[in-house]
Structure formats: C-alpha cells, structure tokens
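Example 9 (inverse folding). The structure is encoded as follows.
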C-alpha cells in the first residue's frame, strides 16, 4: 500500500486506550520471573485512535439486531453490549462516526441521557453513556449514514453491500470501542431483502432464504476492525472439509477451481504453527470495487476478484489472509503503531505456507519481488518522512491508514527472516508456535514483543547480530537485511538485459514458459530507454494488454503509461473503471500525473470514482487534487 498524506487532528484531546508505554523496553538482566509474568506487569500501549477507556469500562459481547436497506443505503439497528466496568466508573465511552443515535438504554436505568463529543477528522466522535456499579448491559439504537466510509453499496441488477472496517471504520456502521486492543464476542440477527444472502465474520449460512433474515454467532473474541458484513446474490461451493468459497453465481465455478488448494494451505499452516482456532476457513469473492487484495475477517476472508487468474497463480494472497488467522486475528497488534506485528508476521507466515505447498523456488521468487517493492517504497517514504520507515510507527494525530505501507509488511518480514536465519529455522518455528498459542486471543505491542523475544529466544550474541534497535526504531533498511535468491528471476533479469539491447528477438523470449512472477519481474523492470516499437513488439508477440493475470496486467499498464504506449490506453481506462484495488490504482494514476497525463487521469477518475470504496477514493482525491 502506498503512503497517504498526513492528516491533522481537529480534536486534540483523546481518551486513551490503556496506559502510555515505556519506549524501547529492555529485558531484565536477571530473570527471577518468567517472561510471561514480566509482560503481564507491563503497561499496555496507548491507542490514540479510540475514545474508549477500557481500563474503566469495556465491552465484552455484542448482540446486534439490524436491517439493511439498499434503497436508502442505510443500516439501522440496535447494538446491545455486555460490559465490564470498575465500580467507580461513571461512564462507558464508545466510538461513532456519522451515526445517528436515536436512543440509549441500560439494564439498570432504562433510557439514559447520553453525550456525543465534538467531531475530529477521521476519528469521529465519542459516545459517552452514563453507567453505575449495577450496569452490565447497554443498548444503542442507531442508523448509519448513506455516506458511511466502511460501506460500499454496489448498484445494479444484483445489488451488493460489503464492509471494510480496518483500520478505524467499524465506527461508521456500528457504535463500538474501535480499538484493536479491545476484543468481544458477538451474535447477530440481520434482515436483508428477500432472496439475498447475508454473511458475516462468524458462523455463516450457505444459501439464501426468501425471508431475508439470518442469524450469526462468533464465539471467539475479536476486535472491532474484524467485524464484517456482506449482502448480495451469492453462491456457495465447498472445496474441503473446513474450506469453501462464496462468490456471485457467474464467478462461483471459477472461484472453486482457483482456490481448490485452500485446504492444503490450511493443513500446511497448522503443521507449522498449531491448530486453526476459528472452525472454518471460507473465502468470499467480492465485487472488483473492493479496495484491497484481501481482508482477514475471521472465518470468512474477503477477497478481490482480481486474484482469479484461471491458473491458480495468484493464490499467495489466500496464504497471506489465512496466515492472519494466527498473526493478527489470534495475536493482535495493540495499537496501529504496532501494525507490523500483524503484517510482518503474516508475510513471513505466508512465505512459509507457499514454500510448504509450492516449493522454495516459488517462495523465493515472491520474496524477491517483495524486496524489489520494498526498496522502491522505502526510497519514496524516506523523501517524505523517514520516521514512517520505522517498524514501530508514530501515528498519533494521523489516520492509521498512513501505516499501511510496505514497511509493516515487507520490512517486518525481512526482520523476522533475519531472526530465523540467526537462530535457525527449527528454533524459530518452536518460538513462533509457542508465541501464537501462548498469546492466543490477546494483544501485543512492540515493547512487549521485544521483551518476549529477548526472554524466550535471543541470546545476547543474537541481539548483537540482529540489531533490534536499528530494525524496529531506525529509519530505512539496515545493512544486515537478509539476501534473497531466485535463480529463475536471475535468468529473467539476464534475458531483460539482453532483450533491451536487441541481442534477443522478442519472439525468442521464454514468456510462455514463465510463471507470473517471472513475467512481472520482466515488465516491472523495463528500462527507461524502452521504445514504443519494443512495447508494441512485446504486445504483438504475447498479447499482454489482454492478459487475464491482473498482476501482470498492472505491471504492463504502468509501463504503458510511463512509455507512452498509446494502444494500451483503452485498457488502462477499463481497468481503472472496473477495478477498485488501491494497490493498482495509486501507481497508475500517479504515473499519469507524473508523465503529464493529468487530464487523462482526471477524465478516467471522473468515470471511475463512483465505483470505488472510500478507502480508495480518499487516496485518489488527494493524489489528483489541483
């Protein structure tokens, strides 16, 4: 994900989630206590992106009764929470944004006078509810706004609704304590138009009913960003005892074929780091407007249709979202400053799953491409804000979406790979398995993890070799970043060099024998000197403009923009109008802007913007502003 510009707080005084951390915690020299005991006594990090005060009062279970109205683009309902509070607590505080609060009741006070605080940019407002020592339940009757940023209402013959709650958008469709450090279980009753299927991040139905009323249950506690809802004309197809795909009827057969190896991935993941804790692992293919590749909602990953290539070549995204069932969903970053604890671990785990199922060469090609993207993004971020290249982020006063860059994902991955290579894979695997199992359904911040790492795995010599300070709190990429090696990509680089000099005729390239990673590597590294005729020769020889692999197509369209290859421009437009995945949108629009094609970019964007989720159009609005 590309960096998004700094946003300033309109409301500077926030309620803290937990207590302020002590930065750069050092492990004690002598350990009369266990590491777990030491960590238990450490203060939790402050969540600057939530008004909640969980040390005073927090939610523990949600019962949600709601209706979905496509005609008004509104979700209306009642959120009833079981709560835990100190006897001295006089209020419980939730996060809301653009919600209409109609009534609040408590189990011991009936209807109560609630307060809504001033609005802060991207944070929304604090909903303050009075409680007593006898209050153990609160109920909030409310409705969402048609402009709620978590929701995308896809119009057409078959309407579709999906949510995207990460990072702090759950508060736009459910009043909640919207912090990754606060977990709750939930059950729900959801009413939708008859004949449409509703699905949530919970136990799910497999077919629609004419009444349009569905019930759900999530018995494992989750943070609010993992709340998810989808409604549409959706079909179901099992691909294993514990795995299945959901998709619109026109895509269900393709999805079933594409993801038939999900069960193999699940088995490989369990063999690495312990039992899967969520019962089922199912996958929902969303409309192309979905702004991300995938979202790891428990029991039901949301995924973009752009990973359906027809040849199972893009399934590493499924491995990534599956890995989140351990890293993120099971052990969760306490705050968005600690986002790398979710994503760095997940990329590492993803690579291990891919290696186990498809072999080391495939995982090393993926790692090499990750390194390629990481170095480019680090250079870009260093020019803007070097602190944003730290693993431990500094997002107070900013939208946590700013932290969704390659730093958390790929710098985090290479840090963990360095640890593995320093201590040995067998030892590191044992550590990670215990880390996931010993901290299941708990939260972790960076300082606690450092203490855990030092106490349970690293020797002083290991610490010196790794240099934790440079990796976690330092800018850029440390000198000891692990090297990756892919013989196949080395051969591609050689072929590119020879081709660009005219020594290899285009038809003699081994394009048809290359995997998508090799094709992507070739296209993404075309030299600036590449001519129109060379681009046309590639397209005429291999039909790249019409490829069905969206990763390869994206690389080709970006190069077409940079090299003024006009025959691909109609495909650029249809791609940008049809696809809402921000990973693709940002480089393509930026490429047009930076090569003097701003009018082309804005013309396409005017057509495409209504199809995009807020996560995407907020970024593009800023990118293409005057």
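The amino acid assigned to each position is listed next.
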């Amino acid at each position: 994900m590309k960096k998004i510009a700094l946003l300033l707080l309109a409301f500077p005084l926030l309620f803290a989630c937990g207590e302020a951390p002590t930065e750069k915690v050092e492990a004690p020299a002598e350990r009369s206590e266990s590491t777990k005991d030491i960590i238990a006594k450490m203060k939790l990090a402050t969540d600057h992106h939530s008004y909640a005060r969980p040390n005073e009062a927090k939610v523990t279970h949600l019962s949600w009764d709601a209706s979905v109205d496509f005609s008004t683009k509104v979700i209306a309902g009642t959120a009833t929470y079981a709560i835990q509070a100190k006897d001295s607590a006089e209020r419980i505080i939730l996060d809301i944004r653009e919600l209409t609060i109609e009534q609040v009741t408590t189990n011991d006070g009936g209807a109560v006078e609630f307060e809504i605080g001033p609005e802060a940019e991207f944070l929304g407002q604090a909903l303050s509810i009075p409680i007593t020592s006898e209050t153990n339940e609160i109920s909030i009757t409310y409705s969402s706004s048609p402009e709620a940023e978590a929701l995308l209402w896809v119009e057409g013959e078959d309407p579709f609704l999906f949510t995207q709650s990460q990072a702090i958008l759950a508060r736009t469709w459910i009043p909640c304590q919207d912090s990754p450090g606060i977990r709750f279980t939930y059950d729900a009753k959801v009413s939708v138009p008859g004949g449409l299927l509703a699905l949530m991040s919970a136990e799910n139905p497999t077919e629609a009913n004419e009444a349009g009323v569905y019930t759900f249950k999530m018995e494992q506690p989750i943070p609010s960003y993992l709340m998810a809802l989808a409604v549409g004309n959706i079909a179901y197809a099992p691909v294993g005892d514990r795995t299945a795909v959901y998709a619109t009827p026109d895509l269900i057969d393709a999805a079933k074929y594409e993801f038939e190896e999900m069960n193999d991935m699940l088995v490989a993941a369990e063999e690495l780091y312990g039992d899967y804790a969520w019962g089922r692992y199912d996958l929902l293919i969303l409309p192309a407007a979905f702004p991300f590749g995938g979202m790891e909602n428990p029991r039901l990953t949301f995924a973009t249709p752009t990973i359906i290539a027809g040849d199972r070549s893009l399934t590493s995204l499924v491995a990534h979202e599956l890995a989140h069932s351990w890293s993120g969903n099971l052990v969760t970053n306490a705050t968005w400053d600690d986002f790398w604890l979710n994503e760095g671990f997940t990329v590492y785990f993803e690579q291990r799953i891919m290696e186990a199922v498809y072999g080391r060469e495939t995982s090393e090609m993926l790692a090499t491409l990750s390194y390629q993207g990481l170095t480019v993004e680090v250079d870009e971020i260093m020019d803007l804000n070097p602190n944003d290249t730290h693993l431990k982020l500094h997002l107070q006063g900013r939208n946590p979406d700013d932290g969704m860059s390659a730093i958390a994902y790929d710098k985090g991955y290479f840090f963990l790979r360095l640890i593995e290579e320093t201590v040995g894979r067998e030892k590191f695997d044992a550590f990670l398995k215990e880390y996931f199992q010993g901290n299941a359904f708990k939260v972790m911040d960076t300082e606690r993890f450092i203490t855990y790492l030092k106490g349970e795995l690293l020797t002083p010599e290991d610490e010196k070799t790794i240099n934790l300070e440079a990796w976690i709190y330092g800018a850029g990429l440390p000198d000891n970043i692990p090297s990756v090696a892919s013989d196949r990509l080395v051969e591609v680089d050689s072929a590119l060099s020879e081709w660009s000099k005219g020594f290899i005729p285009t038809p003699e390239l081994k394009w048809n024998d290359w995997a998508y990673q090799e094709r992507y590597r070739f296209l993404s590294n075309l030299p600036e000197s590449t001519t129109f005729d060379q681009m046309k020769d590639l397209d005429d020889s291999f039909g790249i403009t019409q490829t069905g692999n969206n990763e390869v197509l994206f690389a080709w369209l970006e190069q077409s923009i940079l090299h003024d290859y006009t025959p691909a421009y109609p495909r650029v437009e249809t791609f940008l109008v049809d696809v809402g995945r921000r990973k693709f949108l940002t480089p393509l629009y930026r490429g047009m802007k930076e090569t003097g094609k701003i009018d082309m970019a804005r013309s396409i964007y005017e057509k495409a913007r209504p199809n995009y989720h807020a996560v995407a159009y907020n970024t593009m609005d800023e990118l293409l502003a005057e």
